[in-house]
């Protein structure tokens, strides 16, 4: 039997799916509003978030609720003071702070390649204050260098430019050393020292590879290297740089669900 006008089956199915999703959302919203307990209310709310994510950010995974670090008010207040009010990087910064526990009693200094506005460097300096370590913060403050084809199409030259003045004001109380310049030339301004903790957050292949080549040989045993961009599809070059470099080394790269890649020096 012919239908007139012609029916787009995919559109009909899509409309039906949207209708079901709308009904599910309305049902869960009623459950959320009328839930007899906080436990059921939070469960309905989390399910609502999952439905909303399917529409707004397809592929995004809404994870478990009731994690204890959600209640670390001191840490969350630090993030707010540092300008991370939307908390989208809170999980990465919390893990970074936890990893610092591994190196607090190790010899060696700390560094961050790709400082942006200095939040991660501030957390490093604040946690390790009083240990006698010097922190080195390296950035061009002019944004990213020009991406190459290996870096994909997400970034543009000049993205993530930041204020040297803001970073200086945040880190100066800790006695941190700012090294302004492009990687790898900026590394020539660093003293010959060992490192116990290095945070690499430069997004692109070449500066990530240059950072690994500089810092890895200078890491103390037990020292930690964190590549902030390792697990993000927006930074394929950073992941390839770390993977290529570590293929010739004994340590595995631990890919954390936060998106960070972690290496502990043997």
Describe the structure.
The chain has 2 domains: 9-56; 89-264, Vaccinia Virus protein VP39 (Rossmann fold, 3-Layer(aba) Sandwich). 39% of the residues lie in helices and 13% in strands. It has helices spanning 9-34, 38-56, 73-81, 90-99, 119-127, 164-171, 205-215, 236-246, and strands at residues 109-113, 135-139, 177-180, 195-200, 219-227, 254-255, 261-264. Strands 3-2-1-4-5-7-6 form a 7-stranded mixed β-sheet, with helices on both faces. Strand 2 (135-139), helix 6 and strand 3 (177-180) form a beta-alpha-beta unit. Helix 1 (9-34) runs antiparallel to helix 2 (38-56) and helix 7 (205-215) runs parallel beside helix 8 (236-246). The radius of gyration is 23 Å and the shape is globular.
Name the descriptors.
single chain; 266 residues; alpha/beta; Rossmann fold; 2 domains; seven-stranded mixed β-sheet; 7 strands; globular
Rg, rounded, reads 23 Å
- What helical percentage do the residues reach? 25-40%
**CATH fold-level name of the largest domain:** Rossmann fold
Average pLDDT, all residues: 92
Poorly predicted runs:
1-13
Condensed summary:
The protein is an alpha/beta fold. The chain has helices spanning 9-34, 38-56, 73-81, 90-99, 119-127, 164-171, 205-215, 236-246; strands spanning 109-113, 135-139, 177-180, 195-200, 219-227, 254-255, 261-264. Helix content is 39%, strand content 13%.
